[in-house]
Amino acid sequence: MYYVLFFIFGVCIGSFCNVLICRMPLGKSTIYPPSHCPKCKQNLKYIHNIPLFSWIFLGGRCAFCKTKISIIYPLVEFACGIFAMAGLYLGEGLVNSAFLGLCFILLFTLSIIDFKHNAVPEILLISAYFFAVFSVLNLTFNILDGDFYRSPIIVSFIFAGGITIIKSIASAWINRKNNGEIIEAMGDADSIIIAIIGLLLGVKLGIIAILLAGILQIILHIILRIKSNQIEVPFIPSLSFALFLVMIFRDFFLELFDIYTKFMGLK
């Protein structure tokens, strides 16, 4: 029953995420004007705004001018419903699970925006981070018990700080190799996503997720280079997908990590 409720919750949030994806990168208000057909500009009625089902009942076309509506909209809503259920599956308690689901949904939204625009709204990044924080509040630490450095929040700051330092060094090196031309090696947005990875996964699984993201990024780069000769490839989609995969297949990746450390003589 809870999975059904979380799916409905996610689909409704996904409907608003479509608005965020379309409007925020262009600097438009997410509230005004109300939802409307981009072709005939007619404001949609409430019955036309039912997430997922309205698109199905209308046959994927505008109720007024019959212009075809992209299937991307219901797919985003459906995916957000799945991510909300994943939050319930992976979270501890309903409230924490809801925040984890919201974090997944925002990471998905940020991935789409980053893929389309190679830039993401800062407010969505910060929101995703705090949703991640709220999702692990039941894992809060007690400094007096000596658990300070095991805190998910502290781990996230260590991850973000370390990656920022690496980013600065890499940017300086790339800048030197390109005759003074400034090319950012990794965006600050990526550092926040990596902080979320450290927050939700901890050190060991966090490292695994970042390594996996690097592999996914290489694959994505090759595909985009072949299909569209695109050189600049956003990193947030790879980071977000790697985080999700490691959380879903947590035990598998832990076992893989142990096998690797034993093989390398590190354990």
TrEMBL record:
GO terms for molecular function: aspartic-type endopeptidase activity. InterPro entries: Prepilin_IV_endopep_pep (IPR000045), Prepilin_pept_A24_N (IPR010627), Prepilin_peptidase/N-MTase (IPR050882). One of its GO terms (cellular component) is plasma membrane. Residues 102-220 form the Prepilin type IV endopeptidase peptidase domain. Residues 8-86 form the Prepilin peptidase A24 N-terminal domain. It is found in: Cell membrane. Keywords: Cell membrane, Membrane, Transmembrane, Transmembrane helix. The chain crosses the membrane at residues 5-26, 71-91, 97-115, 122-141, 153-174, 194-223, 235-257. It is a multi-pass membrane protein. One of its GO terms (biological process) is signal peptide processing. It comes from the Bacteria. Belongs to the peptidase A24 family. This is Prepilin peptidase.
